[in-house]
C-alpha cells in the first residue's frame, strides 16, 4: 500500500528538571504518521506516551521540561519551542482529543461557546453551521439543542463525540487522540472507535492513537509502536506485531491480555522501574526480562545493534 508521511518524529528526548537534575522521561523516540492511517503507541501507564503527545503539540512547560530532537510536518521543521508558532499550528494543522472528556471542557460554558471560542464574530455563524453538521455526523441527537447545553449535562460518550467534532472543525491533517475511550462503557467505546476509524478515512487524517488497551489497538491502528520506560521496544504493522511479537516485553504484554478462562493471567515478574533508573542500563526491560542473557549487558550501541536483528527497532 502507498503511504504518504505527514509527521516525522526523530530522536525525540524529553527530560524533567527535578531538583536541578535532568530525569530522562523519553529517550531517542522516532516514529512517523501516514495520511489516512492510524499509528498507535501502546504501553503501560507512565511509560511516556502522553508527554510524547504534549511535546509534539508544544504543551510542555519549558521551565520544567527539556526537549530535544526533530519534528517535521509535511517535511517542514516544527518549532515546538515557539509558543506563537505552535498556537497557529494547533489551530490549523494538528488537533488533539484529550484523555478525560469530563475535565476537558469548562463547565461554565455552553457547547456553542466552546465551539466559537477564539473565532471572530463575523465568522461564528459559519462556524456554528459547520459544527452542527459535524455533531450530526457524530451521531448526536438534536445538535441545535446540544449547542445550548453545558458539559455537565452530557454523558462521557456524548462529550467525547463533542470533542472529536471540535477537533475536526479546523480541518486538521493530524489528529492526536490520547486514550479517547478511557472510562467509557464497552458499547460507547465501540461507537467512538468506529467514528474515529471513519473520520480518519473520510478526511484522510493521520491519526496518532495513544492507549494501553490492546483490544483498541487491534481494532483501530494500522501501525503499532510498543513503548516501555520511555523507549521504543518494538514496532511494525499491527496485525504482524500482535500475531508474531519478537521482543520479550511485547510478548509479556500480549500474554497478559484478558481472555475468558478460569486460569490466572500470566504476569511479568518484577515492577516498572522508577524514573531515575530508566536509562541506567542498556535495556530498560533488562531486570524483568525472562530471556535476558550476557549479551544484554553490552554497551547501548552494541545492544541496539544486536536488538535490531531481533525486533523492529
Describe the protein.
- By secondary structure, this protein is an alpha/beta fold.
- It is about 35% helix and about 25% strand.
- The protein is built from twelve helices and ten strands.
- The longest helix has 17 residues.
- The protein is globular and about 65 Å long.
Key attributes of the depicted protein:
single chain, 313 residues, alpha/beta, six-stranded mixed beta sheet, four-stranded antiparallel beta sheet, 10 strands
Helicity, as a percent range: 25-40%
Number of helices: 12
**How much β-strand is present in the residues?**
15-25%
Return the structural class: alpha/beta
What value does the average pLDDT take? 85
| Principal-axes shape call | globular
Poorly predicted segments:
301-306, 308-313
| Total count of strands | 10
| Head-to-tail CA distance between termini | 21 Å
Biggest sheet statistics: 6 strands, mixed
